[in-house]
Amino acid sequence: MIMQYTPAPDPAAIVRKLHIAEDCVALPYTQEIIARSGLPVQVIGERDYPDISGSYPANLSAGKRHLLICRNRGAFFKPCPGTREYRCCDYQVLNIGMNCPMDCVYCILQSYLNNPWLSFFVNVEDLFAELEEKLAQEPQRIFRIGTGEFTDSLALDNITHFSTRLVPFIARQNNAVLELKTKSANIKNLQHLDHRGRTIVAWSLNSPAVMQREELRTATLKERLEAAGLCASWGYHLAFHFDPIILHPGWQEGYQETIRALFAAVPAEAIAWISLGALRYLPSLKQIAGSRFPGSRFFYQPFIDGLDGKRRYFREERVEMYRFIVAELQRQAAVHTCLYFCMENDTIWQEVFGFSPIAQGGVPAMLDRSLHWL
To answer: pTM for this one?
Structure first.
């Protein structure tokens, strides 16, 4: 087991300037971030935005060099925006900021957001008050909470240190589990936190070819798995997400290589769940990503329009990929580890797993049962 932390390249190193909303300047947390980052600071009106030349999405690459420190004036805590046509895991999203310093070709945020800069919300007292209120309303329910819907959970953590506030907060709750999902290896702030088994650290994984070509400024497979092994040695449970699974030459060998490396680096018993999801995207993403990453070719494969309005591989292709990857995972995964699909229909579940989630009480119940240590 790996016991020493070797820092990987920090994706937040691309940030060159902080923009501080004027109503946040005096907050102690803001001052802490300014001092820690050592970056140039521009104070802007509380309703203003960083001035980045060009128009979206052409200025998205430049925008990733700018971090806006501001307040969230809406809700922090919402259900994951799943669709009724596909089985959802009932994930709850905690919105801590917008956009990501890493740059994945397939990232849906390119077509979902309309601002090029990064943002982080510093009115964390409001966040914790809202979260505490929501949890108190349903004390018998287990809330599975994630911060990785609109940003990467840990990519900016070397600047914000938000994990040092959030993890201990979740540790004190009786009906919540936090999932920190990342493509970085920024885990050093997690080492000495009293997480009490209520934080799961998760990594998105892919075929090495996809990770190298389509995931810019992310940690390598080796770096992600070394970080995961360290987190396991610190008592954290883990999760992994093969999403999006992408058809490419040698995909079987690629995913097999990643899965074998995963179980060589991480104790199987530490893994709570592993999700799978084939590539799906909003139609507008093809043009946006195609203009930003003209060397990528996977958007030009045959797709169909799904019931949720997203483009998907044909069913036969999805089933073939899923069956192969699930078989590889099942050879080594622990009995308690929940393997599940993110946003797939009952037909796919039946063809790959031999059952529909409803027969197991639904995807949320399957995931709740995997939390066997609580």
So the answer is: 0.96
